[in-house]
Structures are given as C-alpha cells and as structure tokens.
Amino acid sequence: MSEQVRDNIIECENLVKIYKTKDIEVLALQGLELTVERGELMAIIGNSGSGKSTFLNMIGGLDRPSAGRLIVDGKDLFKLSEKELVDYKRNTVGFVWQNNARNLLPYLTAWQNVQMPMLFGKMQSAGDGKMVLSQNRKTRALQLLELVGMSHRKNSKLNMLSGGEQQRIAIALALANNPRLLLADEPTGSVDLSTASYILDVFRELNRELGTTIVIVTHDRMLARKVERVVAIRDGKTASEFVVKRNLADVASLADDESTQDEFAVLDRAGRLQIPRDMLDRIGVSGNKVRLEYQDGRVVLSAPPADDEQEEAK
Ligand SMILES: Nc1ncnc2c1ncn2[C@@H]1O[C@H](COP(=O)(O)OP(=O)(O)OP(=O)(O)O)[C@@H](O)[C@H]1O
Ligand SMILES: [Mg+2]
User: For residue 254, what is the DSSP state?
Assistant: First the structure.
C-alpha cells in the first residue's frame, strides 16, 4: 500500500465522478480537492446537488470515483480489488446516515443492534455460521452504548426509541468495528434542533475520547459551527473553507448566531479559484471576464469596463 500518507487520513486530489445513465451524464464531482488530518472533526456543507453525498460515498468505498486521486488511511481507493474494498468498508470506515433505518434492525434491541457488525466479523472468520457472541463483544457493545449515552436503554427494541435515540444507536453501531474514520451523511437531518445539538456533542466526544476522524455532511451552517473546520462544496468542487477561531469548549448554544469562523476560498493546485455567483453579480460581472489587479498587498477583482468587455469579446 502507499506510504505517502503520514498525518493525513484522507488525501483527495482532482477527484472526478461522472454518473452515466442511459441518456445523460452527470458530472457530480469536478476536480474536488480535500485533505483531512488524522483525528480531525470536520464538516462538509453545500447546497443540494453539490456533490456532498457523492464525495462521502467515494471515501466510504460505496462507489468508485471516475478520475483523480483518493487515498484513505494509506489505501489507494482506485487500486483496491473488490475483496479489499469489502474489507475496507468493514474495518476502516463507519457510516451514519440521515435515515437510520438503513443501518438498524427494528426487531432487535439496542444492545443486539450494536453487536451485529462484530457478529458478522466473527462469522466470517469462524465460518461456522453460529451466532454466538463472546462476552468480550457484548461488553464492547455496552461500552459503545455508554459512549453515546444509551446504555440505560440497552434492552429496548429499536422501535421503542425516539428518532434521536435511534440515531445515537446508529452511531454506536457505526463504531462497532472500531473504524479509524467515521462518515456521517446528514446525521441530524431528521431530528429537532436540540437533538441535533446533542448528536453533534456525541460526535465531538467520540472524536476526543477515541481519536476517531469524523467527517459530517450537513446542510446546516449552524451545526457546522460546532466543528473545527468546515469545507464548502459548490458544483462538485471545494469552494471555500471555514476555520473556527475560538476554543470548542466555549461553544455555548446552537442558537448563538454570532459568526465565529473565518472563511477562506480554496485554491486548487493550479491556482484556480471558484468565485460565488452572487459575489460576481454584486460586482456586476455578467460575462466570463473579470479584471484582476494587484493593489497594496491585495488582489482586487472587478468588472471589466464596458469598452474592455467589447474589446475582449472580439
Ligand atoms: N446514482 C446517481 N446517478 C446519477 N446521478 C446522480 C447519482 N447520484 C447523484 N447524482 C447526481 O449527482 C449530483 C450530486 O448529487 P449528491 O447526491 O452528491 O448531492 P448532495 O450534495 O448530497 O445533495 P443533497 O444535499 O440534496 O443530499 C446531483 O446532480 C445528482 O443528481
Ligand atoms: Mg446528499
């Protein structure tokens, strides 16, 4: 495997994903660049259709990228065989979805649910088809339930728990095989604001206690403020990055609407920059030209004068 990754758990360069269907091709990722350090807790935001889930699915090994470079935990996802990919999905990454029905079995208890992935691992290795769990696995499942604050409901069937509680079980389940990387796609999409806040706190605690790298996709900028770094994706490309300035321990409440992050536009390797349409509109750029000037240590963008525009249009 590649030795190139040292402190970075995710290295993604110029990643492209094209979905081909019978009559259309969708360019879902258009040269996305992102590096995530081991132990980071970060969020990805972006409008609907910007490519967030596509990107998460690529990192999670659920779908193959079309072009570019993607190294996760030292593994080149372009080069993994099908068998290696199964192993990768089982041991390197854990997934939490918006809709926890995707992970959880409603007729089993919380405790049984969390044991499922470990049981599967055992069956694979023992090959005897027996669903017998070692005490060790039961204990570990209980510890995970404690981590997400749900051990008191360990014997409750899933359908007896609220949506937020089920989501906490889903997080414990995603951690069952001790993944280095936890991926969460809109994990708070179906719960109310205070539950969402609680779930975000669970992620922060897991990140601190276990050192698991966590990447959360969310629509919600307010929730995104609770993490160290936020990357915004626009049209399948990394557009800008926000870095939190204050100590995370000071986060008082989600309703706090004060801006606490600096926003930086992301330059790709070729020095290209994506400028939001609304900013171009505000400076009156309608065509595909923008004036670029160096002034007193700043680079200033402005609309070309009407003459220039005609000149350039020739
Ligand atoms: N399996 C697929 N086949 C074809 N096109 C797809 C497929 N999955 C996603 N797309 C397209 O790729 C683009 C990116 O979709 P994606 O699901 O990654 O967006 P998203 O940022 O997660 O959006 P949302 O916030 O709505 O979940 C969209 O234009 C979408 O229609
Ligand atoms: Mg999505």
Answer: T
Q: What is the pTM of this model?
A: 0.82
Q: Are residues 302 and 269 in the same domain?
A: no
Domain match, 248 and 291 both: no
Q: Write out the chain's pLDDT in tens, 314 residues.
A: 445 545 899 999 999 999 998 889 999 999 999 999 999 999 999 989 999 999 999 999 999 999 999 999 999 999 999 999 999 998 999 999 888 777 889 999 999 999 988 876 544 444 444 444 456 889 999 999 999 999 999 999 999 999 889 999 999 999 998 899 999 999 988 888 888 888 899 999 999 988 999 999 988 777 777 888 899 999 888 888 877 665 444 444 444 444 456 777 877 777 777 787 888 888 888 888 888 888 888 888 888 887 655 555 55
Residue among 53, 186, 217 whose CB has most ligand 1 atoms within 8 A, to mutate:
53
Q: How far apart are CA 119 and CA 128, in angstroms?
A: 12
161 and 258 in a single domain? The answer is: yes
- 221 and 199, same structural domain? yes
Parent domain of 293? 276-314
Residue nearest atom 26 of ligand 1, based on CA coordinates: 48
How many folded domains does the chain comprise? 2
Residues 267 and 280 occupy one common structural domain:
no
Is residue 204 located within the same domain as residue 296?
A: no
The gap between the terminal CA atoms of the chain, to the nearest Å, is 52
Give the pair of three-digit tokens for residue 161. 């728990």
Residues, beta carbon < 5 Å, ion ligand 2: 53
- Tell whether 1 is covered by a domain: no
Q: Mind spelling out the 3-state secondary structure of 77-141?
A: CCCCCHHHHHHHHHHCEEEEECCHHHCCCCCCEHHHHHHHHHHHHHHHHHCCCCCCCCHHHHHHH
Q: What separation in Å is there between the alpha carbon of 165 and the centre of ligand 1?
A: 28
**Residue 294 alpha carbon to ligand 1 centre in Å:** 38
| Closest C-alpha to ligand 1, atom 11 | 28
CB-ligand 1 contact for 48 (6 Å cutoff): yes
Q: Tell me, yes or no, whether 121 and 20 share the same domain.
A: yes
